[in-house]
Amino acid sequence: MTTQTNRLPAGGIVDRSRVLRFTFDGIAYDGHPGDTLASALLANGVTLTGRSFKYHRPRGILSAGSEEPNALVELRTGARREANTKATTAEIFEGLESASQNRWPSLRFDVMSVNSLLSPIFVAGFYYKTFMWPAALWEKLYEPAIRRAAGLGRASDSADPDTYEKATAHCDVLVIGGGPAGLSAALTAARSGARVILADENFQLGGRAIDDASEIDGQPAAKWVASAEAELSKLPDVRVMRRTTVFGAYDGGTYGGVERVSDHLASAPAGVPRQRLWKFIAKRVVLAAGATERPLVFGNNDRPGVMLAGAVRTYVNRYGVKPGHRAVVFANNDYAASTVQALAKAGVEVVALVDSRTGPSNEVTAIARAANTRLISGGVITTVKGGHAVKGVVVRTADGRSISLTCDLVAMSGGWNPNIQISTHLGGKPKWDDALSSFVPGALPPGMTVAGAASGALGLGDAITTGSAAGASGSAPVAKAVNESTAITPLWRVNDCSGKSFVDMQNDVASGDIELSEREGFRSVEHLKRYTTLGMATDQGKTANVNALAIMAELTKKSIPDTGMTLARPPYTPVAIGALAGHHRDKDFKPSRRPPSYAWSKEQGAMFVETGLWLRPSYYPRAGERDWLETVTREVNTVRNAVGIVDVSTLGKLDVQGADAALFLDRVYMNGMKTIPVGKCRYGGMLREDGILMDDGTVARLAENHYFITTTTANAVKVSQHMELCHQWLWPELDVQMISATEQWAQYAIAGPKSRDLLRNIVDKEFDISDAGFPYLAVGGITVCGGIKARLFRLSFSGERAYELGVPARYGDALIRALMKAGEEFGVCAYGSEALAVMRIEKGHISGPELNGTTTAKDVGLGGMVSTKKDFVGRMLLGRPGLVDADRPSLVGLRPVDRSERLRSGAHFVARDKQVTAANDDGYMTSVAYSPSNGHWIGLGLLKRGAERTGEIIRACDPVRNIETLVEVVSPCFVDAEGEKVRG
Amino acid sequence: MANPTLAAKSAFLGVQSLKHPAFTIEDLSSLTIASITSAKGKSAEVKAAIQTAYGVALPDTPLRVTGNGIAFIWHGPDQWMAIADRGTNNRDIEVELKPVLEGKAAVVDQGDGRAVVRVSGTHVRDVLAKGFAIDLHPSAFKTNSVAITHAAHIGCIIWQIDAAPTYEIAMFRSFADSFMDWLTHSAAEYTGRH
To answer: What is the model's pTM?
Structure first.
């Protein structure tokens, strides 16, 4: 037996032949395909769906769409639990579990509803006024307590198990909204041959024509909608996207959308995302987003069972559901009167039509008479009786009498607000329309036309006419339909009510809060919004803002347009963070770059470190090694005593050619590059225009007009951009051709006393790599392993005899294997970025910590390289007083006085006889390492007047770890100071 | 080449191909590629030399032109990429072009610096739309169109080789697996779980 006591036997577009079972707060109910959670709950007679945000007042279902402020629920369980979902838009599926939120211990009995009794003191601004002192309690006590009391739903604590995607779609015409206006626009645009995208947030096209069961071309609207959809779906360049909300307008004809691909399913099918974020790029846009009905503001207008009149018609006409059994309709306009007809047709007794206008129109009178409904013209509802559900209303008649009416449903309508939000996202100010008593779009984003109710054309006939013309200019209406009467005389609030009159239901802002705001001087709309939080809930005040503005206008005796209007911001409705991230979460947050030795290093069990996007091996642990330090120490000792291999492919590499290549490089580097002989390399540094050291690297001259330069891994892109700027903008007259070759070459450094012996096993016999034939800083094109083209550089970062060998990257994997095999007899090991760093610190070579955007060449001991014979980028500003100040910190080496002590990078230097204060700060430790070659920790640092202080004992203070170490200032080179080893 | 003892390896360490009517991926790991950058004021001489050697007119706009066993992809003002298959003779386009363009252009080997995939299938545009922001509709992007753009935060060059449509996409080699991860995830909707 069905649980659906309030489902009509026929009518609507739900599929009664199929039953879907779902639960709400643990109770099982039936629904049908085509139902939302809200329609299915109403079909089951459930009207109490949640508790309000601040006062914990019982709330039900207000609307039938995405404007819903009240019926916010938790959907699903476990990792998929999702809070604050609108019951009015969530489609039910077999097995859906849903729950009310913001209540404890249960929905019917909620402890925190005591807040409602205290509501006279919980007014707007209450928290700010009350919880002011002592300030420390705000963070520790007040805010957590308020958050717990005033929370909404609970998000899942687990990682989201679903996947999300992003995609881009281009079109000539983007139609936002698939109601009669949007469908008409899509049809005329498509028939004109345009590429069209029609997006509607709903899973059913047709908008209010379906909700009102209107007639189009003399047939039921649902039939016309189906035939329009069928025509559109046949065209190859038309994409109809249901369940897709266009949520924002951005520059350049770009619109953001979110497609709820699988939200209506128990779980996404294999390979299919839960949601997809769309970037629509449109030449033209037709905004046909419809309109949102305004609630009326009267006592207890938030009780479960008080609903928007249009929503009541939707539940009856679209879902075949009776939202109640005895209804009162309360309105200030003609359009709402059709609710009486719809209810009467569904067998709901309509006790009264309370029309706040004194002179009823003929239409309204006729409708009331036909339904045998009492028409109370010039009347208002002053209060709703009942707590968890509507039990009745008190009506004040035009002559001031009070009448009590018994009912369980109140259908209210304060008129309609065109959904203009997207027209204002780029700053377009809306215009006030007196006839509609609402705002209509003003200045529009480029390429946008507004049609249908969104433009203020509320009648069905006008919607089709304006839509048809908007889709392709000059088009005749695609169908015939009549305009409903939409005449209105505004009623912004009912005075002298009993019970709170809510304006913003989601944020619990009542009419009295607006009065308070006005009394306390917060009269501008922006102040009103921030003082009361009106319009700041997840619905952005779709049902609240215009009423609030009008009430403030009334209080300040100004016109509504003079009072102002807050502009909407994207998103139109909330967008899940997951959709914004798309594919790019967890390990895919950013792409990762894999060096040529990656697969081999993985096989070796290497540890990796992220260097920018690169995944570089950091060290290669071997069985039995206790920790990274033991591994790194072994790797350093192997290089210093035998031979080691490290992948240096990640260094930036640029191929520079042209008749002016030498001149160009001379201008880019601080030291001379014109004078490098062909077949030789030189270490070089380049400065920023402001004289600060930008990057260091090597420059190899392969031929008269052909150079090959390397940069640090971190600065590869920056250096490339800098050199392009120099070429394209500073000296376009130079004949220079540059291109990145970083990825072309798999490059390995082979370092250590046995490096040449190892290479002899790899380099083809005809190439002389003896010290005479291939001395320190030589470079040459060679072949290896039986004819594979390669480049050999004799360069050293470790301070040992060393070579860099480059082969085309496709051979990189095979080469590391071949090198390791060739080195077996010499005890070779692979080493990673850790050992590389230890050895450069032992040699006093600078790296990222010293090349940090604040140091000059002189600061880091490279002053001697700065040419005085030529001009180069950075030369002029290098001479600024601040950069030549003798007090500037400069590079020194440091070792602990007690050699057993460990050094810490980041520790600040203070002279031994000074107090540890910021004023006495003499610099800091930039890099530290345990030096296997010295048998103790060593450091590099930037020390004030460092060059003069060799031999001084100073303090290295680490306030983070609360450690102070006495260190001796020494030369930054800790190994082979004479540099004999590199030459062999 | 003598008798090399090193084996070449694809840039794609994981998935290298996918065959499904909806979407196919083919790893083009046997390409030889060289960049051509005209010397200052010599682009007319470069074009003439290429015309003579290969019977192909180099384009000034983002286009691909093809000759006998070779294609040239526009790659910036006065810059092109020459692309051919290495074939069984291990053709090396850098070695081949250098004498042709001696003194006229910088020719740099890029065949290993770039990973290239060929993609096709009934849903190829739907899959690519999940990363490429450019318009691949036939009214905007046709056979031999070229674009330098990005997908999934990875810089790419994409060109169309036929009206099927079939596209080829080049990216820097080290990004190959990240690109393939994105591509196979994006195709999963049409090809089943990756």
So the answer is: 0.94
